[in-house]
């Protein structure tokens, strides 16, 4: 039986952080489903750097169908979860069904991968305290305030958490996440 992976996201998620894990995990043979606050077509964005700007710019990316809404998710049928970055983490963290799903993955020690700005979605849940975590550089104050150690590396594995700085780190990020998935019974 194929392992099932859940991608937890919403509008304005970083396009590459949704599409790369979706395709890479399917390529590996996993069944992958996307959950968002509601079952709908979500709008992703492309974050990139332009000369003369101090921070990244944002353009519309791909439109992606969410397979189910957060309130429809039974986390017990999934072997792991991925939370893409972008701006989606800022608002999905306020969804109580999202919080329940993430809490289940943490409490059951199932692999949970999150990158870039996705750590913002875990901050209010208190799950970063005492952990080592990679994220986009501008989140260092948020990560340390949450009681975690910010690590500026391609990928950080801390227990069942796999984190990275941004989409540029995808090869190491997905390699380590897949390694955790394969180590499960």
UniProtKB/TrEMBL annotation:
PROSITE patterns tied to this protein: PEPTIDASE_C56_PFPI
Signal peptide: none
Top-level taxon: Bacteria
Residue ranges of every copy of the DJ-1/PfpI domain listed in the record: 3-179
Family in the record: Belongs to the peptidase C56 family.
Protein name in the entry: DJ-1/PfpI family protein
Annotated source species: Effusibacillus consociatus
